[in-house]
Amino acid sequence: MPTAIEPMSPKYGARLKGVDIREPLDAATLAEIKAALAEYAVCAIGHDASPTDEQHIAFSGLLGPMERGKEKKFAGVGERIRHPEIVDQSNLNEVGEIYADSDRRLAYKRANRLWHTDMSFFTIRATYSLLAAHIVPAVGADTEFVDMRAVWDALPQERKAKLEGLVVEHSYWHSRVLGGGPEPSAEELAAHPPARHKMVHVHEPSGRKSLYIASHSMGIVGWPQAKAMELFKELMTFATQPQFVFAHKWRLGDVLIWDNMCTLHRATEFDDRGQVRDVRRTTCRERVVVNEKMRIE
Ligand code: OGA
Ligand code: MN
Question: Is the shortest distance between the CB of 68 and ligand 1 below 6 Å?
């Protein structure tokens, strides 16, 4: 199947034409998709109708070991989407109604509006995330991205020298609370301790260096926390300058794939109390994960 690559911005991000994830893909097409991801970091594949959850999962499995949440209850009881591979990123509760204001899950979803990379708070991180658009509001709700390889390239040499070798602690709860969610209980904290990762790493698929920080970043090993937070603030401010940002405007049926190892992303505002946005995510991981303690939305 031929793949045409149509850049979505001058910087990075591309739409892959001639690919339909609902159909079986041959090895050559898959290799082209991976090569496009290595170069463009964010790739959209459009469809005239949303792929089913099963098709979404089957395609994701071709890109690496997949995240599987805990086995879910029956549909309609506790979970809107029955598949343990799918993270429900919609603003809908288990019976398909827009979350109530008081619903803790709504507050946690809003943490997605902070610049982040998926699952940096795990030792075995997310590589690709695949977000499928089932219902999108008419206005707003773009997803914004930054290519952290370009950010690294643009940093002054003396800054770069100071960052190499630093080890960052990433915590799930840190960003949830920053996003306006409630403080976790001691039990929740203990169940999900921070993970450590190098601040600067080589992005394997492209061989380029990338900065790896996110709203989950809560400390630097061997540094006082306040000093670490100051550095994160400086770097995040630098990284999210308009010249680095690309906004994806969703089309119904889009499956958007991004590489978490070299990008930041965030959800943007929309009327999440009045409009339905049904987007569903699968996630690939660096390695197969067994026995992870909790399901992470
Ligand atoms: C995600 C995410 C952003 C969005 O699914 O990981 O951050 O726009 N989504 O929904
Ligand atoms: Mn995310």
Answer: no
Question: For residue 230, what are the domain limits?
Answer: 4-285
56 domain-assigned: yes
Residues in the chain, how many? 297
Q: Which residue lies with its CA nearest to atom 7 of ligand 1?
A: 112
* Residue 1 Cα to ligand 2 middle (Å): 30
Q: Is the CB of 279 under 6 A from ligand 1?
A: yes
Dihedral pair phi/psi, residue 283, rounded to 5°: -140, 135
Tens digit of pLDDT per residue, the chain (297 long)?
A: 557 999 999 889 999 999 999 999 999 999 999 999 999 999 999 999 999 999 999 999 999 999 887 655 444 446 899 899 999 999 999 999 999 988 878 877 888 999 999 999 999 999 999 999 999 999 999 999 999 999 999 999 999 999 999 999 999 999 888 888 888 899 988 988 999 999 999 999 999 999 999 999 999 999 999 999 999 999 999 999 999 999 999 999 999 999 999 999 999 999 999 999 999 999 999 999 876 655 454
Beta strands at 14-17 and 42-45: parallel, antiparallel or unpaired = parallel
Does residue 148 sit within a domain? yes
Longest dimension (CA), the chain: 55
The phi, psi pair for 174, rounded to 5°, reads -55, -50
Give the β-pairing of 126-135 and 278-285.
Answer: antiparallel
User: How many domains is the chain partitioned into structurally?
Assistant: 1
